[in-house]
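Example 3.2
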Amino acid sequence: MSTPLSLSTSEIPTTGTYSATTERATFWTVTGIISAAAAVGVFEVVLHLLG
């Protein structure tokens, strides 16, 4: 399973680098969105408890 992937990646290094960079950017974007949503949720809970 990993052999064809590594072969295609070594054959086209630019595509492999682009994919890795895109995946990393997507990962951080999703992580940021989840963190923001969690922060908003905690903030709303605190307001509810104080209110």
